[in-house]
Write a structure and sequence with these properties.
By secondary structure, the protein is an alpha/beta fold. The protein is built from 15 helices and eleven strands. It has two domains: 245 residues, TIM Barrel (Alpha-Beta Barrel), CATH 3.20.20.70; 68 residues. 41% of the residues lie in helices and 12% in strands. The two termini are 27 Å apart.
């Protein structure tokens, strides 16, 4: 049984990674429906929280069907990080997560996100401050290091554990890599097999199918897997991985009717939560993967990613369901979302 503090997550849990403009309540609900064991919110600026910025505060929204969930914060100022803990606690998540992994320039230039990987002592100090400022279990998501010459994550993970974090999730790339190249899980496995480590260690990076998930679990012994880009537009990744873990068989992919139904459900919830402009805009990154593999889909996708008319989108989804009613998707043994997203 994998536990974060007193929170029980079962055996080999699958976690939805925190992703900016992706891991919102509408999408989290779908991933939970399809088998994700734990969610994380989009990363939230502590500066936005303490200034009561509308966009930051909105990200604190949590619904019962999503639980258990962790709220992820990022920042660099010690006082702001400390003050944000009280605001996060008021939202009543199960976990408070610290983002030490976001690689985008406007975050790292402030020594937040992956920027703090340039100063491990400060990383440890800031983490202790947060642990001491909240009654919630604190977890960390980070990367291997700043670049190939600064992969200090094995020592850093042990030091973070020593100041009180309850779990750590590690993306198998450096900040310099951004989302390019292949994720390297070697050091993730080294952390998990460090005899001094006793908290859960979750691996993240390039897990895009049941066979790949089982390979990573068997090879590196991690406690669970965090799924990020492979879930975008494909919430079924969680049920497919779980099915393969249980049976050793690749589950048949959802047919076009299920894909359209879920896309409609997603869009409806997105419109309700974000409104007609943002709700439609942020759905666009999902459509490619919802309908990946359909021949001659480009004209339909062009409508989905350009129009701001909800009725036109729903009508286009109906047309897709009708045209491809008999199309059989091939079972997926490997799937990788090639875009990038912050978080």
């Amino acid at each position: 049984m994998v536990k974060i503090g007193n929170l029980e997550l079962g055996e080999c849990p699958l976690l939805l990674a925190p992703m900016e403009d992706v891991s919102d309540p509408p999408f989290r609900a779908l991933c939970k429906q399809e088998g994700a064991d734990m969610m994380y919110t989009e990363f939230i600026s502590v500066e936005g929280l303490i200034r009561d910025a509308k966009k930051s505060v909105k990200k604190l929204d949590i619904y019962d069907e999503e639980r258990p969930i962790g709220i992820q914060i990022f920042g660099a100022n010690e006082d702001s990080m400390r003050r944000s803990c009280e605001i996060v606690e008021a939202a009543k998540p199960e976990v408070l997560d610290i983002n030490y992994g976001c690689p985008v320039k406007k975050v790292v230039c402030k020594m937040a996100g992956a920027g703090i990987l340039q100063d491990i002592d400060r990383m440890v100090k800031l983490t202790k401050l947060i642990v001491d400022s909240t009654s919630l279990p604190v977890t960390v998501k980070t990367r291997l290091g700043w670049d190939d010459n600064t992969k200090y994550i094995v020592d850093a993970a042990e030091r973070l554990q020593d100041v009180g974090i309850q779990a750590i999730s590690i993306h198998g790339r450096t900040r310099k890599q951004m989302y390019k190249g292949e994720a390297d899980w070697t050091l993730i496995g080294e952390i998990k097999n460090n005899p001094r480590m006793h908290i859960p260690v979750f691996g993240n990076g390039d897990v895009d199918s049941g066979p790949k998930a089982v390979e990573m679990l068997n090879r590196y012994g991690v406690d669970g897997i965090m799924i990020g880009r492979a879930a975008i537009g494909y919430p079924w990744i969680f049920r497919e991985i779980k099915h393969y873990m249980k049976t050793g068989e690749v589950l048949a992919p959802p047919n076009v009717h299920e894909r359209v139904a879920v896309a409609k459900q997603h869009l409806t919830k997105s419109l309700e939560w974000k409104g007609p402009v943002v709700g439609i805009h942020e759905m666009r990154r999902h459509y490619t993967n919802y309908f990946k593999g359909l021949p001659h889909i480009k004209p339909y996708r062009a409508i989905l990613v350009t129009t701001y008319e909800p009725d036109e989108i729903f009508d286009t989804l109906d047309l897709i369901a009708e045209r491809y009613a008999d199309f059989e998707f091939k079972p997926k043994t490997e799937f990788f979302y090639q875009g990038s997203t912050r978080g």
